[in-house]
Structures are given as C-alpha cells and as structure tokens.
Design goal:
Layout (H helix, E strand, L loop, with lengths): L2 E7 L5 H10 L4 E5 L12 H6 L1 H19 L15 H26 L2 E4 L1 E6 L2 E5 L5 E11 L3 E3 L12 E2 L13 E5 L3 H12 L3 E6 L10 H13 L3 E4 L2 E8 L2 E8 L2 E7 L1 E4 L3 E3 L6 H4 L22 E3 L10 H15 L13 E3 L4 E6 L2 H7 L3 E7 L4 H5 L6 E7 L5 E8 L2 H13 L4 H5 L10 H9 L8
Parallel strand pairs: 1-2, 1-6, 2-3, 6-17, 8-15, 9-10, 9-15, 10-11
Antiparallel strand pairs: 4-5, 5-6, 7-16, 12-13, 13-14, 18-19, 19-22, 20-21, 21-22
Helix pairs in contact: 1-4, 1-8, 3-4, 3-5
Length: about 475
C-alpha cells in the first residue's frame, strides 16, 4: 500500500495549490482528481479551470471585444466594416486556454513531485482512502493527513431540470455553438450576470428572473443600484421578485412559468440557464465512515486550522462555510498545507475581495454601508465618480464610482466598493491597504500616478474627509 504524508482529494484551485505548497515544504503528497475534460481525457484544475473562472472570463473577453468593435470604436474616430461573430471559434479559443492551464498544473505537479491519482476517492477511515479509476480499477492508499477539497457544483432547481440542451447549468452555458435569440437565466447573481453579459453582447435578448426582491444584496446598496441601472441600460431585462415555478421544453422552445408582483406569468426562451447558486460536493466521499461530520446543507465544519471532526482529516474551499471563491480556496490551501507542516495557519476572511466581471466591473472588500449602519459602527464615506477621472474618460469607460468607508473615530478603512473599469484590478490596492490596517488618510497621502484609474481611489479617500480635489 502506498503511503503519503498528505493526500489531497480534489485538484481545483484549493486542492492543487495545497498539494504544491505541501510538497514545497517537504511532504510526500498525492492528489486524487476524477475530472474528465471535453476531450475525454483526465484533467486537473477542477471547476474553476475547466468550466468556471477561466473559461467564463475567456468568453467575457471575447464578447467584450466584439461589442467594442460594433459599438465602441466610433467615439475614437475608428470606422470598421461589418463585424460578425463565430461562436464556435470563440468557444474553441476558450477550450484552448483551458487546456493550456490544466496542462500547466500537470507540469507543476511533476516539477514539485506531487503524485496525481486519477479517479474517485472514498474515505475508509483510519487514514485510508480508496481510489477508483474511470475503468473500474481500485487501489487503496494511506496518508497521515487527508485534505477534502472537492469544491462545489451548480445547485439544481427541481422546477427547471437541466437537460443539457435547452435547459443548461453554468457549465453548459459556456458551450453554446450559436447565439440564442432569446435567452432566459434563472438567478441574477454573479454567475447569471456574467453569463447574461456574454450572450447579450453577442446579440441575445436576455431576461434574468431573480426570486429575491433585492438586487445583489451582498454588495453595497449604492453600488448595486448603480449596477442595476447600468445593466438595464445595456438591455438586460432583470426581473426581481420573480419566482420560477416551472419550465417545459416543447418544439425547440422553453416555456418558463413564474410568479411576481403581477401574479402568475409565462414567457418563452430559446435556451434557459439555471444559475441559482452552488452547493458543496461532499456526498459519496465516505465522510461518515471516516467520522467527518457535515451540517444540514452538506458543508463540513472545521476549526481555525481547517481540522474536521475526524483527526487527521481537513477540509477547505467550497466544502466549508464561507465565500465560494477560487482565490479564497487557494489561500485556504496554502494555510492548511503550512499548518500541517508545523507553520502558522491563517486566512483573513475580512479582506477577501469579491468581483463580478461584467462591464463595468464590480468589486468590493470589507463591510458595506448597510452593514455598518446595522452594527452601529460610526463611519465616514468618500465617493468619487469615474466621470471625473481623466484616464477613464480617455478610455470611454467613465461609468461608475469608487466608494471608501472608514471608521469615524480611528479613520481605519473598513470597506471599499467599486463599480467601474478594471475594478477587479483596482480592488487589490484596497485589500493591501486594509491588510496593513491603513487609514483613509494613509491612502490620501500616497502619490498615485497621473493619469490612472487608481486616482479614483485616492480621491475617494480624500473625499472621506471632504478634501477631494476634482469634484
């Protein structure tokens, strides 16, 4: 029987990072992964690299370039002929990028001495794990430490069962070979908005049916209100308080029944995407046999060192409570590997950035204004619009604003919320500032290059104390 210091189950952004870091620290490491790629071959990277973060951003970039060519170049004095889109070529490009990155992880495993066990893992207890390959071959391995990093899957909706053709989940929505004339999306969260943006830019008439009465409730309310206004102007039909009660496929169309403030209604789509969230993959792992407890939603409770209820078994990423974000899972992976190796184990969940890759992008870190009000925390707010930012105006991308929240007594930055161009990159400065316990005054006194988008954060920090120069 092969024995390892650490056996990682799952090679997504949490698992493969944990495996590599543990190997760097001198542990003998193996990683079990069962994913089969579109080419029918085993693949590393999990959901994020295969059908999540990377492929969706590839399609977002392609659709954005197409939209800019059709609608955004005239303002720069650039004229082009008729612009067309080849969805199959766009999807093929996405697949090439995915293959490059999944192959890259294979190379990193080899470089760091991590053994890839291709197949499905099942815990047997007493540090033993059964691995079953796709062709049915079975082997049992042992490990001093076992890490569950199996990630999450799309949450199914019983009233709209996925058939893989007309009704799809977020993975299926990445492989349309033609642009649907009418596209319906159940859920107006991060995934729904990003996928809706892709296909709306390519010509779909997109309707998002959101059961919640509030748009993006996790975001700062002011940012969410601006986002709703902007997306509506772009043509996304976002219907809040719309609870889907059924979906039927007939004659190549999807009939969707839903209820809203106006009562029972029905509408027709060519394709329907179910994007109502994700759930942890913790079934069929033998957790009960190993003494690993789960809560009522299938999440695995862990302590501050990611230890489960079973000695020597750990869990990270989407299978434990907290934000279901790839970068959070990666940091969990590094922390648990270092903890197992005897080092310090810590992740600051208070400074994890959230991002929605629409256009304009939305990003935030820390607490929202509504949360501070509810908690009775005294605060000051500084807001700066991209309309007053020279670089944004030069880019023809001046929608949105930066909002900074600081403690009214200590001036420590409590949250930063951005809707605007390249918000996903700008938020990093705020994360670093908050990790170093910066004040609004600190950011205000740092020289930011001109002209840059980052000046908007500088001005928002100034605005927190009514010192903004350009508004």
């Amino acid at each position: 029987m092969e024995r390892y210091d650490l056996l990682v189950i799952g090679a997504g952004p949490g698992g493969y990072v944990a495996a590599i870091r543990a190997a760097q620290l001198g542990l003998r490491v193996a990683c079990v992964e069962r994913w089969i790629g579109k080419d029918g071959k085993p693949a590393l990277g999990g959901t994020c690299l295969n059908v999540g973060c990377i492929p969706s951003k590839a399609l977002l970039e392609s659709s954005e370039q197409f939209h800019r060519a059709r609608h955004g170049l005239g303002a720069h004095g650039i004229s082009v002929g008729e612009v067309s889109i080849d969805p199959a070529a766009m999807v093929a490009r996405k697949d090439r990028i995915v293959a490059q990155f999944t192959g890259g992880i294979k190379g990193l495993f080899k470089k760091n001495g991590v053994t890839w066990l291709q197949g499905t893992a099942r815990l047997l207890g007493d540090g033993q794990v059964q691995v079953t390959t796709a062709d049915g071959a079975v082997q049992t391995v042992a490990a001093q430490h076992i890490l569950v990093a199996t990630g999450s899957r799309p949450t199914p909706l019983s009233v709209a069962p996925v058939d893989g053709e007309y009704i799809v989940d977020s993975a299926g929505a990445l492989d349309f070979t033609a642009v649907p004339a009418r596209l319906g999306i159940i859920g107006a969260g991060v995934i729904g908005l990003e996928l809706g943006s892709v296909w709306a830019r390519l010509g779909s008439e997109v309707t998002l049916l959101e059961a919640m009465p509030e748009f993006l409730p996790a975001a700062d309310h002011a940012i969410a209100a601006l986002a709703l206004k902007e997306f509506t102007a772009q043509g996304l039909d976002i219907r809040l308080g719309a609870k889907v009660t059924g979906a039927q496929v007939a004659a190549g169309q999807v009939a969707v029944d839903f209820e809203d403030a106006a009562g029972a209604q029905q509408t027709q789509f060519d394709r329907l995407i179910v994007a109502v969230g994700r759930q942890p993959v913790t079934d069929d792992l033998g957790l009960d046999a190993a003494g690993v407890s789960r809560d009522e939603r299938g999440f695995i409770p862990v302590d501050g060192r990611f230890q489960t209820s079973a000695a020597g078994v750990y869990a990270i990423g989407d299978v434990v409570r907290g934000p279901m974000l790839a970068h959070r899972a990666s940091e969990d992976g590094i922390a648990v590997a270092e903890g197992i190796a005897g080092q310090h184990c810590h992740v600051d969940y208070g400074t994890i950035p959230w991002i929605i890759y629409t256009w304009p992008e939305i990003a935030w870190v820390g607490r929202t204004e509504q949360a501070l009000k509810a908690e009775g925390v005294p605060y000051v707010s500084g807001v700066f619009p991209f309309q007053a930012n020279g670089r944004a105006r030069a880019m023809e991308a001046a929608q949105g604003q930066v909002k900074l929240l600081a403690h009214a007594e200590t001036d420590r930055v409590l949250g930063v919320h951005i809707i605007g161009p390249h918000a996903s990159e700008l938020i990093a400065e705020a994360v670093v500032a908050m990790e170093f316990c910066a004040s609004a005054e600190d950011i205000a006194r740092i020289v930011h290059a001109h002209p840059t988008l980052s000046e908007a954060l500088h001005e928002a920090a100034l605005a927190a104390h009514r010192r903004a120069i350009h508004i």
